[in-house]
Specification:
The structure holds two protein chains of two kinds. In chain A, about 55% of the residues lie in helices and about 20% in strands. Chain A has ten helices and 13 strands. Chain B folds into two domains: about 210 residues, Multidrug efflux transporter AcrB transmembrane fold, CATH 1.20.1640.10; about 70 residues, Alpha-Beta Plaits, CATH 3.30.70.260. The chains are: A alpha+beta, B alpha+beta.
């Protein structure tokens, strides 16, 4: 009986979790906004595949250039102020790509222009006539272009400091011969003065480093007691200027903002009609047993949706299709079991015996048949991007939960309400 | 009812569906969407309702490499172009705005040639992997099948049924592509893979029962055991597919426009999968058995 209670409690606890969570209340240990996440095809927005032109970048620096480009695109996309943009880098043997997803954006053209702009890195020095309060607490406006830019920088690299006076990490800079000359004259005329770096007119690493020495060999170091992560972040930003790659739009997928809402409404309608028709069929064909299966199906739907929100799974149109399809498949295990029970009874078994035999004997085919579907889901998940992954994931979750709901939930319901009535 | 007796009739019925599809596939091929062929798809809402032919002419004159324009709603047009870059598209959009009043992008998809080639390769690999994975799992799962059947026979027959479903699906889409310009995209591959999973799913249930019955009735002729097993699992096979068909129909009729083709592919595949598992896969076991028996002179019965 205890096991029985546990069986029934598992879905119930989660059920309550779900119902309580719906209006954005958290379960305590889980702190997350439990609104379902919508994919681009539902929220509207744009997905871009940008390929980076690496022809002018030496093979050794290409990985750095890509992560620098990613960093810079990420910053720009974030500056657009949309919720949850995604920037991923993807590398194939001969292609360096960035995949950018910007949901819920109105002016896509302007966003594209912002994202694709080539990064511009500038080293600046204090204006000739600084405003009175300039040094020591100078403002970004007090600086002007020094003529030294990202084009003069060969690469930037984060490395552990070997100077006991400045522990932690440093960023070392390597300039080309042109840059070395400029740097020498700048360090001469601005000795002991700050030299901030600006990326796309935004200062990076503020307050700015101060020139400590006249550098003539084109090899500089920025020290500042950085942690490894800070140093790496700064190096990536500097590399964005040093290794500018132009980004070509290789493919894009734009979805207008209105189409998504209509699609969601249609999908919900389709899901409801789907569930109702399955329910009607089950009750009409299996009568009382069918009713139990419908209750299990209902619990199944709630469970799956709760899991989607908890993981969270990004819902795309194909993902919703996968979910709805899994509703149709979820009763599959129940049908297998019920048919088996009917047969066992026909072969002269008692109701209780038939009940156990039905679950036991149906298990091997439920297992085998679902494994084959799970295999294809796994392959789909690896094959696809975006919407296909969504489909594979929702279908796989659906299949797994359906096995649970058909076996555990239905069995519990039947034990209590059906077998008990003998 | 003796299903096994009429097995040749059922095989013939499958061929009636598959052969025209095969011809369509070889004569016309599949109509490949921009996912695999590359290109630009631009669905645009314009202020005025214009003939789609006019739009086609207009855009071509403005320098767009237009291959087709279709009207999707009263004032909405789906324009297919060769892979077109941002600048050209913006130019076209400006011209449209100037001539027909302010337009609104419903969606805009561009797939470059490198990506489409990669995707096509990945798709083929995915389908082959799925089939291989399933064969391996099945051979393992049915390794203990009792005599006279062999686990190899179970595996091969499942794969034949699976190929049957893939052929039906691809063939039907070759025909649909030719007559209704329905395109094959990444979602279609997804549908093919899902159908592969489903098809095996159905076949396994029948085979699982045959496996069980072979143990139970080991003194009955193989044919009878198979037929008996098909009948026993008949309502189950039909019912599970019916529930899937219900939800897919709901999606097809009431769901979003963009996945209609996808849902249609799933529907065709699942119906075919149910048919092939009942009427092809299990009877094929008997064909196999008869051939093997004849060869070694060991025919039972």
């Amino acid at each position: 009986m205890a096991a029985l209670a546990a069986y029934i409690d598992i879905p119930k606890i989660q059920l309550f979790g779900k119902t309580l969570n719906h209006p954005k209340i958290n379960i305590g240990f889980l702190k997350r906004d439990l609104e379902p996440k919508l994919g681009l095809d539902l929220s509207g927005g744009v997905q871009l595949v940008l390929s980076a032109d690496m022809t002018n970048v030496s093979p050794d620096d290409r990985d750095n250039a890509l992560s620098a480009a990613k960093e810079i695109v990420e910053n720009r996309v974030n500056s657009l102020g949309v919720a949850e943009p995604v920037v991923q880098s993807a590398k194939t043997p001969d292609q360096y790509r960035l995949i950018v997803e910007i949901p819920g954006i109105d002016d896509i053209d302007q966003a594209l222009a912002t994202v694709r702009k080539t990064a511009h890195l500038e080293f600046r020095t204090l204006k000739a006539e600084p405003s009175p309060e300039a040094t020591p607490s100078a403002l970004p406006e007090d600086f002007e272009a020094s003529g030294l830019t990202g084009a003069d920088l060969t690469r930037a690299q984060a490395e552990p400091s070997n100077d006991p006076q400045n522990p932690g990490y440093v960023v070392s800079l390597e300039f080309n011969s042109e840059g070395a000359k400029k740097l020498e004259s700048i360090t001469q005329s601005n000795f002991q003065k700050p030299m901030p770096m600006f990326l796309d007119d935004e200062p990076i690493s503020w307050p700015p480093p101060v020139i400590q020495a006249v550098i003539s060999d084109g090899k500089a170091q920025i020290t500042g007691n950085f942690t490894a992560d800070e140093a790496r972040g700064l190096a990536i930003q500097l590399n964005a200027g040093a290794l500018p790659v132009s980004l070509k739009i290789e493919s894009q997928n734009r979805v207008g903002p209105t189409i998504g809402q209509v699609t969601i409404e249609k999908s919900i309608l389709a899901a409801i009609i789907g569930i109702v028709s399955v329910a009607v069929f089950m009750v009409a064909y299996y009568r009382l047993l069918g009713l139990f299966a419908v209750v299990a199906l209902f619990i199944y739907t709630l469970l799956v949706f709760a899991i989607f929100k908890l993981i969270p799974v990004t819902l795309t149109l194909a993902g919703i299709a996968g979910f709805i399809l899994s509703i149709g498949m979820a009763v599959d295990a129940n049908i297998l079991i019920f048919e088996r029970m009917k047969e066992e009874k026909r072969w002269g078994k008692e109701k209780l015996e038939a009940f156990f035999a039905g679950f036991e004997r149906a298990w091997s085919s439920i297992r085998d048949s679902n494994v084959s579907s799970l295999i294809t889901c796994a392959i789909l998940f690896n094959f696809g991007t975006g919407s296909i992954r969504g489909f594979a994931l929702t279908l796989a979750i659906g299949i797994l939960v359906s096995m649970f709901s058909a076996i555990v939930v239905t069995r519990t319901l039947l034990r209590i309400f059906w077998v008990g009535k003998i | 009812m003796n299903i096994v007796k009429y097995k040749n009739l059922f095989f013939a019925f499958s061929l009636i569906i598959i052969i025209p599809g095969f011809f369509a596939l070889f004569m016309w091929g599949l109509k490949v969407g921009i996912d695999f062929a590359g290109g630009t798809l631009w669905e645009v809402k314009v202020a005025a309702s214009v003939d789609s032919g006019k739009i086609h002419e207009f855009l071509s004159n403005e320098g767009g490499e237009v291959s087709q324009v279709a009207q999707t709603a009263q004032d909405t047009y789906l324009v297919r172009l060769k892979t077109t870059n941002e600048e050209t598209l913006n130019g076209l959009r400006t011209k449209v705005d100037e001539t027909y009043g302010p337009s609104e992008d419903i969606r805009l998809e561009t797939v470059g040639p490198t990506i489409s080639k990669e995707l096509a390769q990945k798709a083929i690999i995915a389908v082959l992997l799925a089939i291989a994975g399933i064969v391996v799992y099945l051979t393992w799962s049915f390794r203990q099948v009792p005599k006279p059947a062999s686990s190899l026979a179970f595996g091969v027959c499942t794969v034949i049924a699976l190929l049957h479903d893939v052929l039906v699906l691809v063939g039907v889409f070759a025909i649909l592509g030719h007559f209704f310009a329905i395109e094959v995209d990444v979602l279609f591959i997804t549908a093919v893979l899902t159908v592969i999973g489903f098809s095996v799913h159905d076949t396994i249930v029948v085979f699982d029962r045959i496996r069980e019955n072979l143990k139970k009735y080991d003194d009955y002729p193989f044919e009878n055991v198979v037929n008996h097993s098909i009948l026993q699992t008949f309502s189950r096979s039909l019912n599970t597919s019916l529930t899937a068909v219900f939800v897919l129909l709901a999606l097809f009729l009431f769901g979003g426009e963009t996945i209609k083709t996808f849902v249609l592919a799933l529907l065709i595949g699942i119906i075919s999968g149910t048919y092939s598992s009942i009427f092809n896969a299990a009877p094929l076991l008997i064909v196999w058995q008869n051939l093997a028996g004849r060869k070694f002179g060991l025919k039972r019965n």
